[in-house]
Amino acid sequence: MTIWSDGMSYGYWSTIIAVLLLLLLLLRVIPGISHRVLLIAANFALLRALLPITVPSMTSIYNWLNPRLHIEETPVIHATYAAGDVSVSNLSLTIQNSTNVFHILTGIGIAFFAILSLWAAINSYRLIKNSYVCADAATMSWVESNKKKFYKLTVLHSVRISTPISCDFVLRSFILVPPVYELRDDNIGVYTHELMHIRHRDTIWKILALLVLCVHWFNPIVWMLIYIHRIETELACDEEVLQVFGADYRSQYARDLIDYSSGANYGFAFTSSIVFTPFQ
Question: Which of 117, 169, 193, 208 has the greatest number of CB atoms lying within 10 Å of its CB?
């Protein structure tokens, strides 16, 4: 296993991300593959985008790509000593400058991620703090029937939102709905959609996606990967809702998505929603 440490090696890293994105795009056009499987593949691509390592393998696709793309590691020669004199090669300067630029770009991205994370955490805290528990019998019964041992689920009313959203903090999870929103047979699919986000820890994966985007903010391939990950996250939840309620519920669920996709007005926060919020 080799850990890359110089800017010239970002070409390897970017090639890996590009290959994974291409494979993901090919999987999306194959009939019969569920969106949950596609999302797992997208999650793997996100993790790989954060790991600048190579694992030697006889069957690696990069063994086939390297001689065709002429990608090779070049040793960094910082200085040459001859008879007491020191001379620095042009190659050394080029590689060193490339390394510095890469580190600067990555540092800017990580700093931006820290700022965004703090902002989102504060907004999430305020959003939940200013909400109140949905105490109607239908909602309480639904919450009780969907509780799991590994998290505590609470449904809240919030005046700051116009569409249902979910916040997942691993041990404590929340579904927030507008004040006039009540659980009924015709809108239970929207509640279930948010529950699927919580069950699959989609908020955690979206934080990871934000980190990937901030680290590779200058790479358009990563922007496309994040976009596909966002789409597959929502489609996977939609798919599971229809698996729960059956194909007959499809038209009603589509109407619910249209009715409650008017947008979000709660700012940048660690949430998941049936609509694409700024964080998503």
Answer: 193
